[in-house]
Write the structure tokens for this entry.
Amino acid sequence: MSMEFVLGDLIDLSSWQLDRYAEDFSTLFVEYQNIKEQLDHALREGPRAREIRRNIKVLLSGMADMGVVVTDCNGIIRKASPAIAGLLGADPNSIHGLSLGRFVIDADRQVIGDLVLTLGREATDVRLTSIGGVALFGRVLRVPDPEQGYRITWLLRMAEAVAGDTGQRGALFSQLYARSTNGIMVTDAWGTILSTNPAFTEITGYAEAEVLGKTPALLSSGRHDGEFYRRMWQSLADTGEWQGEIWNRRKNGEIYLEWLHILATSDDQGSPVDYIAMFYDVGHFSSDRDRIYELANHDSLTGLPNRALCKDRLQQAIAQARRVGGSVGLLFIDLDRFKEINDTLGHAVGDQVLMDFSWRLVHAVRDTDTAARLGGDEFVVIAPGLASEDDIRIVAQKIIDSLAVPFVIDGRDLYVGASVGVAVYPAHGDSADELLRQADTAMYAAKGDGGNACHFFDDTLERRRAQRLDIEGGLRRALAQGQLRLVYQPQVAVGDARLVGVEALLRWDRPGHGVVPPDQFIPLAEATGLILPIGEWVLRAACLQLAAWRDAGLPSLRMAVNVAARQLNDVDFVSRVMAILEETATPPGNLEIEITESQLMERMHTGLDNLKQLRALGVAVAVDDFGTGYSSLGRVQSLPIDRIKIDKSFVVDLNVNGDSYAIAHAIVAMALALRLEVIAEGVELQEQADLLAGIRCHEFQGYLFGKPLPPEEIAVLLQRMKGDAPC
Ligand code: C2E
Ligand code: CA
Ligand code: CA
């Protein structure tokens, strides 16, 4: 199998060939993984890492002359690393329960006493004598402990090298500790720092006194997630060792990459007593500079250039094109349905898809092109010299076609698509940022077309985008500046056309733009979350209006208010509605909530709960735009609703289209069977009203009976009703 294997050449293959191709592909992938692993291995085995490995062995043997003990506040040993018994000259089998305090020399007893009784400082150095009379040094720390209030941790080592084998080892150890260019840190089982060497200070910028009693978390860069540390601790628990690269932060805030090797020692019961960590600053060594550059500029998952390097390359390509009067094509690629895979099958599978895709992407483009990953499932291809639309379309199509074959992961076939947006220098912009933005906009348009498509940037896209931003900005101010108002459309009873209710409809009086209809801003308000404050304003304004009509002595009527799914799914929705009803003294029975059929059919637990609670309070629920969603009869039956609003699209041609009539008829029949009320919206003609009355619809709403009206005009209608009423 040659590495020049071009995926795009494999478009017109028969199905058995496709199977073979999938097999070849996985062979290739395995090959790629092997090479990557070998590379990683070579890097891990670099000269500095090897030195650390040697030194850590010395340190480990040196641990025979050093050890960590944890005692309770009476100085009774609770935990001890293996070397401790030897250091104290005590019997290893009876080390637990021994009083360590009695090894402290008389002159230092007082300081220890103070520390234990929390009178003195949190850390102190003391002198001890072993049973055999050997002088020992001890560093003692009082550390807060969630279980016992506090614990006392001791780091013991021999005061001076004694003759013989142990002595030599001890001397080597002491030298290594003091003079090593590698940073060394000793902690207890809980990670409390007990000791650091001079190189630690040099690398991290922290003096030993500043970190004693703290945990290594103070070095954390925030670059690794919980999973990274979880694996590190797992490895320490399983094998007593961890090594690898880790990004840490110096005292001055600078983030750096270090090679870290940690060893754990455990007591005779196998529980860890101390950790010894040795590390070096990878960037400090010139041979590693390239690698640091590589790490900083490449995406660690796919190995492709990352956003920073991509921008850099794009800028270079633009500069070059400018000099020679050439062009640069930029393709912005976003995977379709990737989120679904990630959410349902997990990140590991998602990562595999991204790796596989990056491999296919690299092979779909020319050697002179740069493929990069911006993050998530967003990739770009920089194609210098590609000017003609046809050329670019061919590349885009190759990328889309490379996804015709599924990714086979864990024996599962996974299909994803790609939306590609294209921007070209100089036609669509002359800076890297501008081109990236335009290509992104074009990609959104491709996505909007249902994905698996390629779109070129054009001005209308830019204009639409600018328009969206403009509306959003204006809408944020609209609420605060009182530019929103409600109009009310009559709802009448079939038969006598008596006014039974109104639907509140939102209007935006936008300075310089006239009246903006809701269709032009509600979807945006929903997307940005602005619908929450706006929706609450609508509810309150509608209820205040009911109160105003009531105060004017007018007959009461039902007020229908449109509610977006996002509002209904808010956990506070019911309490907000209750507060508004109370505040405006509105009887709950006068309020009706309209929610569209399609929104009701989305999975919403909180939303359904909220509807149930509201109905229990007496608030009515209507399903708006009914017939346009996909409710089954069984589903409708189980929903907490009172009324169905037949969508105006079935009413508009009721008199001429047999299908619409049949649908309207079926909806009403179903509603009657379920004992639901039915209202038809968009009734404009008497003929439509007659047909609807014939199939026993209950109520009408539409221009035939009244357009959405300002509140004064509804008041006139109500006044007239009052006059008509029998005294
Ligand atoms: P909708 O809830 O289906 O409201 C009915 C729309 O049909 C209204 O348009 C109304 O003016 C129009 N209409 C009523 N009768 C007729 C008729 O006989 N013929 C025709 N051709 N149209 C008729 P409007 O006011 O532009 O509202 C459009 C949509 O905006 C509403 O559709 C609703 O989904 C949304 N909307 C309006 N106000 C609010 C609100 O306060 N909150 C939320 N979330 N959505 C709202
Ligand atoms: Ca409505
Ligand atoms: Ca409607």
Notes: The longest strand covers residues 255-266. Residues 15-44 form the longest helix (30 residues). Residues 503, 562, 594, 624 surround calcium ion (ligand 2) (CB under 6 Å).
